[in-house]
Design goal:
The protein is α+β, with helices and mostly antiparallel strands. Helix content is 64%, strand content 11%. Helix 1 crosses helix 2 and helix 12 packs antiparallel against helix 13. The radius of gyration is 38 Å and the shape is extended.
């Protein structure tokens, strides 16, 4: 009756990935009172090894002989699988990582050995999770590194317990966990967790709908979209717990419990009071933690990571006092992110851009485990740093060429640095580039007067081209694409005369982009004109509402194009439509009044005539 009065939906995928044979295996058995789900990852190097299949078949047979959710029973299933792999005939011993999940349709218990994984998601959060039995996991926990570091750790597959290891086999058996309606259980092998981090999987199941197949498809789509170079076998299982079993005899037992509770009520009154006081204190700490966490998020949104760090530390302290493991892990992830950003910001303020860039990349990795709250801030900083480093790269290349005596090539690099710094409004970089130019011009002054004059002419032309390019960029940003095309064309002409193919090519790209934008603008203007023509036609047909819609579309396009004149004329036309509509409305009202008056007069005449006849 337990299975009939509960609803569990199981969907899985298992693929070979980039390997010739799939050594992963998954199977399950659902009996009337108990169910067992087993996933295994074959660890043999031979592609035809059947360790995973043999392990699962043995475990399921042992379960069917003595179905139970007891700790000893679950351990016996895993021990049976271990003995089967140890006794298997063959040149090489069979090995496998395995996770076993048993349930009585109301509670569940799991056991595992190796690095296959289990996660229980409840309300979008991880309620239960396994820990890999590997040297890499132990090292990561000792160093307090994020969990996702393990996917790239060189010791992640160095296991100390696995199925088939013999006498040293020590599986982990969990305590029982009560299931609730809406829980989602997942089982997966290393082909998944080596390529998808915890945050990405959590995002999928926090937004999960009532379709386990959709979740499976989303996991596979995300995995394949990353296009990993060496994709191993991967297996992913999801079990949707739509309805858990409810014991019909629970009310009888409840009555007995209540009766016993009444007998000892006086004895536990003091304990209840103490618990109430503790709960009150816990409530206050919880409220304080939530308030501090909310302040942390607000400061992060404002970009004030110093104050965010102070608030986050207070929130973490409260979470630790509350012994809220999940909140402690989440807040710790935020704090590690904030500390990484503050460190990077410090280096950025000291103009240590290369070191800051590396620390911002580290912060970006940590942001993945903190709901991506700092992605936008970090990306902006990295974009600025990339531009700044490009300026200094040009200056360093110029310095290197200057040492070799190639002043002309060095001058070109300095001018590129100056041009780029001018374009991104990097005053310090522009100043350094100008100082480098001044220095090299001083050295070039030692050359012949003819060479000096020629070089100055080239420098002037390059500066003029850079300024034209900057003017073109400014016009482009202001939406003056025709003006920008003129500046870019003039800059291209100067770069072509200077035989500066690199800058000429960059300017040509900008010119093409400008022409594309100009064409798009013309298309939008044409569309607006088309709306205006359609509105005029509708207006002539008397469809004032349709005409007004077309005028609105045209006006929005003109405003988008910043053509205030045409937008104003369109709004004036709409105002006239409103006046016409009002006049039409008044005219109809007057006609209705006249018609009502005529009808009343006619009725009065009929009444008088009738009275006369009488």
């Amino acid at each position: 009756m337990r299975k009939q009065n509960s609803t569990y939906r199981t969907v899985f995928l298992s693929e070979a990935g980039g390997e010739p044979v799939n050594n992963d295996y998954f199977a399950y058995v659902e009996l009337d009172k108990y169910a067992c789900y087993v996933i295994a990852d074959g660890l043999n190097e031979q592609p035809d090894a059947e360790s995973a299949r043999l392990a699962i078949e043995t475990i399921l047979l042992a379960f069917q002989e003595h179905p139970s959710t007891g700790k000893r029973a679950l351990r016996s299933y895993l021990l049976a699988g271990n003995r089967a792999l140890c006794k298997a005939d063959g040149k090489n011993s069979l090995k496998a990582s395995v996770t076993v999940l048993v349930t009585d349709y109301a509670k569940m218990r799991y056991g595992y050995a190796g690095n296959t994984r289990l996660r229980l998601y409840r309300d979008g959060n991880v309620k239960e999770r396994t820990q890999d039995m590997s040297l890499g996991n132990d090292m990561a926990r000792k160093r307090k590194q994020p969990a996702d570091i393990l996917s790239r750790h060189e010791e992640r597959n160095n296991l100390y317990t696995w199925l088939g290891c013999g006498k040293g086999f020590r599986p982990y058996i969990s305590k029982k966990t009560a299931l609730v309606n809406g829980d989602i259980l997942t089982l997966y092998t290393r082909g998944i967790w080596e390529n998808l981090d915890e945050g990405e999987l959590k995002d999928i199941f926090s937004e999960a709908k009532d379709d386990p197949q959709e979740c499976i498809d989303n996991v596979e789509d995300m995995l394949l979209s990353k296009q990993p170079e060496n994709l191993e076998n991967y297996t992913f299982v999801t079990i949707f717990v739509d309805k858990v079993f409810t014991d019909p005899n629970r009310k009888r037992r409840t009555k007995k419990i209540i009766l016993a509770a009444v007998i000892v009520l006086v004895v536990i009154a003091v304990a209840v009071l103490a618990v109430w006081l503790l709960r009150r204190q816990r409530t206050r700490r919880t409220e304080e933690m939530e308030r501090r966490l909310a302040n942390t998020m607000e400061y992060i949104r404002d970009g004030n990571y110093v104050r965010a760090g102070e608030e986050c530390k207070e929130a973490l302290g409260n979470a630790e006092k509350l012994r809220d493991k999940e909140k402690t892990e989440d807040i710790s992830a935020y704090l590690m992110l904030i500390e990484a950003v503050n460190k990077a910001d410090g280096l950025y303020g000291e103009q240590e851009y290369e070191s800051a860039q590396a620390d911002y990349m580290t912060a970006m990795e940590r942001s993945r485990s903190a709901d991506h709250v700092a992605d936008e801030y970090i990306e902006k900083k990295l974009s600025v740093i990339n531009d700044y480093l490009s300026v200094y790269d040009y200056i360093r290349m110029g310095d290197s060429l200057s040492v070799k005596g190639d002043y002309k090539a060095a001058e070109e690099k300095y001018l590129l640095a100056k041009s780029l710094a001018t374009g991104i409004c990097f005053d310090a970089g522009r100043k350094d580039a100008m100082e480098s130019l001044d220095r090299i011009y001083g050295e070039m002054a030692k050359e012949t007067e003819a060479e000096e004059a020629e070089r100055k002419e080239i420098a002037t032309a390059q500066a003029g081209a850079a300024e034209l390019l900057a003017e073109g960029d400014k016009a482009f940003e202001d939406g003056d694409y025709e003006g920008a095309k003129v500046y870019y064309a003039m800059a291209m002409d100067k770069y072509q005369k200077l035989e500066d193919d690199a800058n000429r090519a960059q300017t040509e790209i900008r010119l093409q982009s400008c022409m594309k934008k100009a064409a798009e603008k013309e298309e939008r203007e044409a569309l607006a004109e088309e709306y205006m023509e359609e509105a005029a036609a509708l207006e002539e047909e008397g469809d004032l509402a349709g005409a007004k819609k077309k005028y609105l579309l045209a006006r929005d396009i003109y405003k988008e194009l910043k053509d205030d004149d045409k937008a104003g004329r369109t709004e004036n036309r709409m105002d006239l439509l409103e006046v016409d509509a009002e006049e039409e409305k008044e005219k109809r009202q007057q006609e209705a009044l006249q018609q009502n008056g005529q009808q009343q007069a006619a009725q009065a005449g009929e009444t008088v005539s009738g009275n006369t006849m009488e």
